[in-house]
Each structure stands twice: as C-alpha cells, then as structure tokens.
Amino acid sequence: MIISEPPPPHTAPSSPNNLPTSSQKSPKSYLATLTSKQPHQNSPNTKISFNPQPNSHTPQNVTSIILKINIDAQNLKHIRAPWRLSVIVKCYGKTLGMMYFSHKIKQIWPAKGTFNIVDLGDDYFIVKFSLEEDFLKALHEGPWFANGFFLSVRLREPNFNPKTAVTQSAAIWLRIPCLPVEYYDANILKDVGNHHGTLLRIDTKTTNSGRGRFARLCIQLDLGKPVTTSVIIDTHL
Q: Rounded CA gap, 205 and 177, in Å?
C-alpha cells in the first residue's frame, strides 16, 4: 500500500486587498467589540444608543377598541347558581400552594359531601361545596387557621377579581359581654352586627336567651377599616 501525502492547500491569488501590510491590526475579541466606542460598522454615522425613543415603534393613528358583551339577568343567575355554596379563602402571612392548601382544608373542614378548590391566584382560593351543611360550617364556625396562619373566609362575590381585590374581609364572631337580657332581641342584634360589618348569623343560644353572659354575632368584617371596640345600646356601653 502506498500512502501519498495530501495535496498542498489551495492558495488564492494575491490581491491588493489580502496582501499583508504592516498597518493591519489583529482581530478584536468579542468583549472588545461589544465594549468598543467606535461607530457601528453598518452605520458609520450612527452610534449605539441604549435610550430608546418613546413611541418609536408605535403605529400612528391607532384606535383601541373595547368589546363589551352584555349578559342578561337570567343568564347571570344561571351561570352563578353552581357557585352559590362557595367561599373565598385567603391565607394571611404565608403563601400556600394548591396541594398544601387542599391538604389543610381537608383537615380543618372534614366535609360530609364533596368540595372543589380553584386557585384564583394572588393567594386567593375559592372552595365550592356540594352540601349546604359543609358550606355553613366553613363560613360560620371559624376562625380558621393553617399552621398558625389566619384563613380569611368570606362569601363568594360576583365578578370577584383577585387582581383588583383591595378590600380584605373575614367572617368572625363578635362577642358583646354583659349585655342586659332585654337587648337580646333579633332586630337590635341585627343592627349591632350590621354596624360592625355585614351580619351573617346570630348565635341561636343568643336569640333564645340561653346564654346571658354575652351576645354572639357572626359578621363579615372589613379588615381595611378601623375596628370598633365597643358599642352603646341605648345607655348601655
């Protein structure tokens, strides 16, 4: 076997442009090219600028169009009906993932029926129950906590948007101690509850005067407003 040497590399004809000269510079590194203050090679009269001009890529005379879809009252009632037994839950002081939240809810709300959980984003969840009994327990029998962190539970609101929800509220029990028994009246207690927030429930032992040490009302309280610490009923504080 005869092994021949490879042919010599092809050499292009010499031209004035590729003749070596003493004035040629060595190629710049990539870093040097990026940090160079020389004008761009494709735009000899323009320097690179990192301050974009406002609206430089915005088409002129463009009109924004907002499409509005109207839903009649009958259809609104129809699409909202499945969410009637639902509460909105938010954890304060800790961000809970979907799996962890579901695990904790099953622990603190052992439901007789079924329930579905939807992650609304921004630490909000909606819990939809199949049984009214489970729904009322979640709404009224708080306060609820997950590993020491308070769970705000509120009624589901139509058109609730977690991105624009600025009013934080919670369902809490309001206790009025040493209330004279003549004020254990449903209408008076409703007024008291609605002055503190939105009345959700009056403890049955309160309305039938079975408990005389204090009145107990469940209200939805706006956490963004100052808390009322006392109430005057007629002349009783």
A: 14
Taking the C-alpha atoms of residue 34 and residue 169, their distance in angstroms, rounded to an integer, is 54
Residue keyed to tokens 């101690």:
177
Task: For residue 195, give the 3-state DSSP assignment.
Answer: helix
Question: pLDDT, tens digit, for every residue of 153-169?
Answer: 989 988 999 988 865 67
Is the preceding peptide bond at 143 cis, omega within 30 degrees of 0? yes
Residues pairing with 144 in the sheet: 151
Task: Report, as ranges of residue numbers, the positions in the chain whose pLDDT lies below 70.
Answer: 1-63, 166-168, 204-213, 235-237
How many Å from the N-terminal Cα to the C-terminal Cα in the chain? 117
pTM across the whole model: 0.52
Domain assignment present for 113: yes
Domain that holds residue 207: 169-222
DSSP states of 207-223 as a string? HTT---SEEEEEEEEET
**CATH number for the domain harbouring residue 101:** 3.30.70.330
- Quick: pLDDT tens for 140-198: 887 788 887 888 898 998 899 998 886 567 777 888 877 788 888 888 888 888 888 88
Looking at the 3D structure of the chain, how many domains does it have?
A: 2
Co-location of 145 and 174 in the same domain: no
Amino acid at 104: K
The answer to whether residue 6 is domain-embedded is: no
Helix (H, G, I), strand (E, B) or coil at 201: strand
- Give Cα separations from 14 to 11, 18, 20, 69 (angstroms): 8, 7, 10, 74
